[in-house]
């Protein structure tokens, strides 16, 4: 537009308005920047007008200028501005404004090159030195007296836009310049910006300011102090901390050690499933410990163990319950095991039944024994059974076929054990023992017999009943007979190449299976030995007896380390969990002992009837007595719940990670009661 856009009188009024404006913090009259600030008040107020009527009237005395724009230095008598509104490019309006400084307020030397300032809808401001000076043809009002000479305005101009730079100012550069201002100037600038904001936009801004005023407690602390603080949190609080702020979440995610700490504080121990999850291609060490697994895996490992515990101890929903009768309705169930998604049971009738753990349907019936089956072991797809008929039978679980029959014992086979090759320490190095799997059977004929475990592709061996004793020992799967006990062999337990046996002759013997050697003979009980356990890592043997005691033996020294007394009737059941020994007795009590010191930790009273079944793990114990099935907390000894109460008797109980199965008698009928703690019809 023409430079005569304003009349001479209007120019005079503008200069009067600039000289008489009253900003929030007026500068001293001698401050040369004051006049420049007043010029800017006018420029920006004019640029913000959004319609033609705003170009016709310029109430500069009422305008408010943001602090960030009050430092522009104007060194020419005429400045040209261009205003860009939200309109299209055709509607862009341009006007020229001549600002005449007072003689005593600005430098007396000739004016420099005129500067053009473009205001583009509050987005950016730039200054370009490409506009020629516009002649000063406007009236100049008289200037007031100034007592002292004023300091010339710097040629650098505004701190936000250098005269030597031609590129536009971005929001980022404005923010950087703002940060370089003194603290009090920053405060004043921010306050003035707030004053110019609409009320509706101030509310979210104030909420963000409130967040910025909050102090981060963790970001400024040393790492070891943060670890100490977070170590006191339980894991629900720990997870809540991660939701507070992204920085806190990053801190939480970096503290993988915390989940190991929670894992150990909860009394959990890594197992083979955990190892296979962390190192699927690496063989496990001989005996797994928590320190064998790296911290990075403990979040998922802890999650698995914790959820398993919660499902059993305090489930969100009750476990599903399946009850169905077994076919031998009038016979006692002598053995029960959960094998994958199957339930295997044997009975006094001599039959072995395989049921679906999901539906209860009978999937297979293994028949061949002529009398009751009292000992069963499962290894992979192979089942081995021992019977009152003095024989051992080997079965294919998938097909239900009997593939091998071993004869040789002259009395009831009371116990069985399958010893597979294990990684163990021998003379300071890791070895695998034995070289192949073995079957060991204990009998009332006072002997133990060792047999080769038939592999899947080995030839069948099904001798007739008329085969003589001499022919029995020509069995290609027969290895040798272990002799030494003088009474019935009641119980056996082994690991790797070592097996311990307990007998009614009051003694325990330790054998090396591959050679048949008796390594030691342990005496000390005064009545029949009823149960034995072999603890391979510590090389201990634990035995219980009809003499009401439990003994802990060191197999290295052959010495009795502890005699555990407290039960008032025969001790019939033993279970080792981590460093705890659990014993069950006919006196209706379950006792927990410290295996290292031999001290009694707690007693759980089952209230009537001897303890018939007992099984425990890192967080629970399941026991049966007096027609009831009970669930206990192993850490506190508290009775958590009754799983069953409406039965005449309970013969066998077994549980895995997800299910608990009990063989019971109700109204002279045998039933299987299946409790699914993982979820209805779940498969693992």
TrEMBL record:
Start-end of each WD repeat: 366-405, 430-461, 482-521, 522-563, 564-603, 621-642
Region (Disordered): 1-34
SMART domains: FBOX (SM00256), WD40 (SM00320)
Keywords assigned: Repeat, WD repeat
Extent of Low complexity compositional bias: 1-22
SUPFAM superfamilies: F-box domain, WD40 repeat-like
Domain of life, source organism: Eukaryota
PANTHER family named among the record's database cross-references: F-BOX AND WD REPEAT DOMAIN CONTAINING 7 (PTHR19848:SF8), WD40 REPEAT PROTEIN (PTHR19848)
Name of the protein this chain belongs to: F-box/WD repeat protein Pop2
Organism: Schizosaccharomyces osmophilus
């Amino acid at each position: 537009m023409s430079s005569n856009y304003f009349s001479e009188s209007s120019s005079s009024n503008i200069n009067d308005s600039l000289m008489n404006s009253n900003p929030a913090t007026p500068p001293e009259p001698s401050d040369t920047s004051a006049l420049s600030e007043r010029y800017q008040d006018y420029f920006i107020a004019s640029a913000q007008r959004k319609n033609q009527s705003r170009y016709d009237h310029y109430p500069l005395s009422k305008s408010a200028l943001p602090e960030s724009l009050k430092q522009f230095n104007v060194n020419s008598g005429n400045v040209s501005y261009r205003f860009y509104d939200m309109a299209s490019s055709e509607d862009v309006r341009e006007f020229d404004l001549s600002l005449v400084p007072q003689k005593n307020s600005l430098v007396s030397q000739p004016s420099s090159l005129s500067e053009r300032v473009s205001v583009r809808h509050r987005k950016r401001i730039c200054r370009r030195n490409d506009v020629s000076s516009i002649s000063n043809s406007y009236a100049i009002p008289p200037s007031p007296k100034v007592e002292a000479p004023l300091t010339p305005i710097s040629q650098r101009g505004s701190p936000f836009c250098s005269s030597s730079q031609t590129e536009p100012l971005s929001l980022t550069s404005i923010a950087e310049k703002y940060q370089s201002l003194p603290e009090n100037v920053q405060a004043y600038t921010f306050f003035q910006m707030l004053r110019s904001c609409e009320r509706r936009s101030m509310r979210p801004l104030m909420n963000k300011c409130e967040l910025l005023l909050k102090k981060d407690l963790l970001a400024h602390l040393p790492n070891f102090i943060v670890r100490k603080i977070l170590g006191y949190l339980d894991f629900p609080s720990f997870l809540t901390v991660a939701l507070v702020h992204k920085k806190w979440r990053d801190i939480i995610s970096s503290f993988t050690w915390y989940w190991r700490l929670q894992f150990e504080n909860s009394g959990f121990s890594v197992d083979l499933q955990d190892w296979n999850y962390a190192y699927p291609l690496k063989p496990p060490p001989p005996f797994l410990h928590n320190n064998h697994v790296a911290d990075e895996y403990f979040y998922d490992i802890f999650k698995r163990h914790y959820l398993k515990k919660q499902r059993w101890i305090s489930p969100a929903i009750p476990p599903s319950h399946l009850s169905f009768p077994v076919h031998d309705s009038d016979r006692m169930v002598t053995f029960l095991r959960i094998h994958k998604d199957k339930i295997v049971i044997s009975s006094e009738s001599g039959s072995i039944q395989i049921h679906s753990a999901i539906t209860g349907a009978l999937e297979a019936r293994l028949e061949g024994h002529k009398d009751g089956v009292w000992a069963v072991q499962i290894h992979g797809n192979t089942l081995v059974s021992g019977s009152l008929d003095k024989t051992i039978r080997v079965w294919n679980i998938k097909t239900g076929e009997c593939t091998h029959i071993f004869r040789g014992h002259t009395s009831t086979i009371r116990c069985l054990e399958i010893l597979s090759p294990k990684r163990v320490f021998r003379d300071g190095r890791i070895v695998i023992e034995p070289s192949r799997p073995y079957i060991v059977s204990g009998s009332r004929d006072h002997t133990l017999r060792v047999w080769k475990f038939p592999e899947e592709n080995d030839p069948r061996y099904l001798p007739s009943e008329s085969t003589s004793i001499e022919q029995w020992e020509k069995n290609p799967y027969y290895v040798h007979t272990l002799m030494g006990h003088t009474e019935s062999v009641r119980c056996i337990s082994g690991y790797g190449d070592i097996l311990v046996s307990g007998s009614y002759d009051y003694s325990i013997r330790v054998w090396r299976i591959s050679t048949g050697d008796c390594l030691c003979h342990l005496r000390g009980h005064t009545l029949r030995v009823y149960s034995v356990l072999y603890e391979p890592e510590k090389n201990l043997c634990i035995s219980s007896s009809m003499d009401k005691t439990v003994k802990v033996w060191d197999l290295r020294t052959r010495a009795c380390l502890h005699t555990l007394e407290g039960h008032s009737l025969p001790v019939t059941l033993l279970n080792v969990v981590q460093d705890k020994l659990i014993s069950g007795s006919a006196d209706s009590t379950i006792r927990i002992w410290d295996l290292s010191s031999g001290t009694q930790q707690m007693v759980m009273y089952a209230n009537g009837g001897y303890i018939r079944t007992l099984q425990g793990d890192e967080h629970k114990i399941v026991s049966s007595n007096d027609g009831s099935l009970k669930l206990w907390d192993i850490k506190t000894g508290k009775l958590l719940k009754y799983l069953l109460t409406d039965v005449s008797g309970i013969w066998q109980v077994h549980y895995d990670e997800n299910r608990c199965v009990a063989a019971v008698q109700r109204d002279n009928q045998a039933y299987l009661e299946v409790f699914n703690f993982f979820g209805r019809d779940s498969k693992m």
